[in-house]
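Translate structure to sequence.
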């Protein structure tokens, strides 16, 4: 099998699995316990917070361990809301774990602005500027799109915020960026940054939220007060330790360069057919590709029978009709339907890409012959 849906999830590193087992079986103590074994675990979690802060380029702030990015995103948004006539700003390209929270806020009567995307997949900065004002409480724009690989210009958003919305907090969903590109939350004055372990070879159901100033956040779950009161519930210690191990193993620059070569190989093969339409974005990890006249889902299924696994957009929204993100780039419904998502990992070989690329092209042509 050649697995090309790494934006949906990745294979865990074997060493991270070993760490997971160690903490699940031998060092299983509760980090909130007051005896030494528990205190030792709490200390290791705290060391992990420093590791993540360093990796995020944060000189100050704190890390809250969570049950994954969906939870981190909900906490950042709902936990930073305040009573009063505040406004909340989101891009329409956000993952459902942000977008659906925003829609819910709107349904509840809050003032919510959705900002369109440009044709290249980035948020439309001009439209963003227009909705920002002194009442803006939160701006939530993702770092890298899980659908297209477009990288938003966080420096620009920070500048717009300083100029137009000085009271706004800045939340960034960094799920498709962390451990893939270098991140620096201090440089762009990011207040909240979301990460998820299973996107970088850690376990599922564990993640974190970076918080610059704890006073800007309130807990949304009530309980025993773990994670400085922001996320009650006993920490998933084995999952967190395995996530930290994965972080330690990753060489961002080396992987980036290698994945660029994988992505280029795939682009060269698929781009040789004029009916194939590749959305060019900055992240080499994600390619959104349209196949004229063919349904992406049909292609995905045919490829699966040949041992090539690709995605049809975000796994979380794959069961829903249409694709909000591609539609917002101005694509018509037919074109949106023709897209598949190919996403890479540094554990792939160049020969795999060559083989998969040729299989994708050949399978497309076979289907096209039947339907045209
Ligand atoms: N945000 C983005 C950009 C994602 O790609 C995903 C996973 N598809 C999530 C959030 C949700 O992550 P998790 O599975 O950890 O809840």
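Result:
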């Amino acid at each position: 099998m050649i697995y090309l849906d790494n934006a949906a999830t990745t294979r865990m590193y074997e060493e991270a699995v070993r760490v997971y087992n160690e903490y699940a079986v031998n060092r299983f103590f509760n980090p909130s316990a007051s005896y030494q074994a528990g205190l030792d675990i709490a200390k290791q979690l705290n060391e992990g917070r420093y590791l993540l802060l360093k990796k995020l380029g944060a000189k100050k702030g704190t890390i809250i361990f969570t049950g994954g990015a969906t939870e981190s995103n909900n906490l950042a948004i709902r936990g930073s809301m305040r009573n009063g006539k505040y406004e909340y700003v989101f891009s329409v390209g956000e993952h459902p774990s942000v977008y659906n929270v925003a829609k819910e806020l709107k349904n509840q009567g809050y003032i919510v602005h959705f900002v369109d995307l440009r044709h290249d997949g980035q948020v439309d900065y001009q439209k963003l500027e227009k909705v920002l004002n002194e009442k803006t409480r939160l701006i939530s724009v993702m770092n890298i799109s899980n659908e297209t690989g477009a990288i938003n210009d966080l420096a620009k958003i920070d500048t717009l915020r300083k100029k137009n919305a000085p009271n706004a907090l800045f939340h960034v969903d960094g799920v498709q960026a962390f451990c893939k590109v270098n991140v620096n939350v201090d440089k762009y004055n990011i207040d909240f940054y979301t990460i998820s372990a299973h996107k970088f070879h850690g376990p599922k159901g564990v993640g974190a939220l970076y918080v610059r100033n704890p006073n800007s956040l309130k807990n949304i779950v009530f309980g025993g007060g773990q994670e400085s009161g922001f996320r009650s519930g006993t920490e998933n210690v084995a999952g967190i330790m395995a996530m930290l191990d994965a972080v330690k193993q990753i060489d961002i620059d080396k992987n980036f360069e290698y994945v660029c070569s994988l992505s280029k190989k795939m682009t060269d093969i698929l781009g040789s057919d004029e009916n194939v339409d590749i959305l060019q974005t900055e992240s080499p990890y994600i390619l959104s590709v349209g196949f004229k006249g063919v349904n992406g889902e049909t292609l995905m299924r045919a490829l699966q029978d040949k041992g090539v696994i690709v995605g049809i957009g975000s796994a979380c929204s794959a069961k829903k009709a249409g694709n909000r993100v591609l539609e917002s780039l101005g694509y018509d419904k037919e074109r949106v339907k023709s897209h598949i998502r190919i996403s890479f990992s540094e554990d792939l070989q160049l020969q795999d890409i060559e083989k998969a690329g040729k299989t994708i092209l050949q399978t497309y042509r076979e289907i096209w012959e039947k339907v045209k």
